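This section describes the prediction task in plain terms. A model, or a person checking by hand, is given the sequence of a single protein chain and must write out its three-dimensional structure as a string of tokens. No templates, partner chains or ligands are provided. The sample shown here is typical of the held-out split.
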Amino acid sequence: MPARTPARRRAWTIAIATVVALAAAAALLLPRLAGPPATPVADRLTPPPTWTLVTDVVTAPSLICLGGQPCPSVQRAWRTPDQPTADDLQTLTEAAGWDATLDGPCTPEHPTARTVCRATATVDGFSVELRVVTSTTTDGASVQLDVRPN
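The expected answer:
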């Protein structure tokens, strides 16, 4: 086995230190380069205490988005005991500080209607959609929040 010279040992030390430094820099910088998280935008919505959270999916910022989910993004859904009205959505979006546009009266137009209304807005570079979805199997409705990169 050849003897290790001080010059060769120094070269290996420098190479390993460079790889470690580059990996540390990438770990620190890549999330910042990918953009801000969507969670602060989603957290502005304060649902009534009677709503039950049933889904909370948060996809963190990343340079490479996998699994078909945009990143960063937040998808949340609540079960509600009653059908929310357009006024309810307007009140929620105003309290969140979102300048939202409502597209319907939040009343099903026919018995098979699923999404009965939605409020949409652009907030801090994110597309925000708050939907009221009727349930054909239970009383009440579902309210779904979707925050995605714009």
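For orientation: The longest helix spans residues 6-33.
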